[in-house]
Hints:
Layout: H1 11-23, H2 28-37, H3 40-69
Helix pairs in contact: 1-3
Amino acid sequence: MSENSPSKPNLFQVVASVLAAGFGVQSQKNRERDFVAGSAKSYVIVGVIATVLFVLTLYGIVKLILGLAGA
């Protein structure tokens, strides 16, 4: 790799990029690093896991609220 090319992102950077992209606040520098040096497979896996956790969290919150409301 040349001196200016980004290094391969580690797991923390992949998770941070997926979460930032999910919120729509991904920086240009990180987005370029992800597309140049990142593996699509790792981003897909982390994205699927994040989506499942998000849905399960919403489901838990709804169940909790309905339980507290007596429904």
